[in-house]
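Bug: token stream looks shifted between consecutive jobs. Job 1:
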Amino acid sequence: MDTVPEMPPGTFCFIAKRSGGVAVDSHVFIKIGGGDVVLSRVVAVDHGAGTVSIRHPNPDSRVPDSRALGALPLADVEGLVIGSFKPNTGDGGR
């Protein structure tokens, strides 16, 4: 998935399964059309309406975000990223 460049494929993510802590600039795994789950960044949360808007930091991603999909149900957040670390590439940290 190329939606969040700072979390390349193979990144280990620690997630909270509840969406109560979702805020602007959070990274979330969220269901989008067709049941696909994507990683993206939150740009707006409306707790009253129960919606969240996402925008991928990678502007060249082919995966749609809220610019195409509109606001998504907060209930579709599958996980809130609370920590992550990149995989060991075997290059000695270079």
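Job 2, same session, no restart:
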Amino acid sequence: MPCSDTTSRIRVRLDEEERVRSVSFRKVTCGRNIGGDSLLSRACVGLSVAEIVEKDGEEFRRNLEIVDVDEGFLFHLEWDALQAALARYTGDDDHVDPRKYKVASIISDGDGVEITVVILPPAELPPIAPCSKSSSSD
């Protein structure tokens, strides 16, 4: 049985005009980080918070030409986390599950704002084969 350590984190850095400077998404599972080089960071840099929250993730997915299933899955996780982080930041978070998305910090300095949101795993995880097991039958 795999471990239940599946917490994720998204960190969004905004400039003083609330335009995205960077997005960092990390998913921790089995003690390993997945992510870091955010797909969305490349697509969102320079966009305002308002421009991002009113867009559909599929538009970003098409623009990034994501076709790989694994990359698409990670993109979906990252997009959902980004939308939740910005909604929590703006206070327009009626649709955000507060049991899943927890604001870890919002830090403002002379250069802008850094928002960190922790994404908690579901209470019940479906059965998943451990990473260390091979699925091939010899």
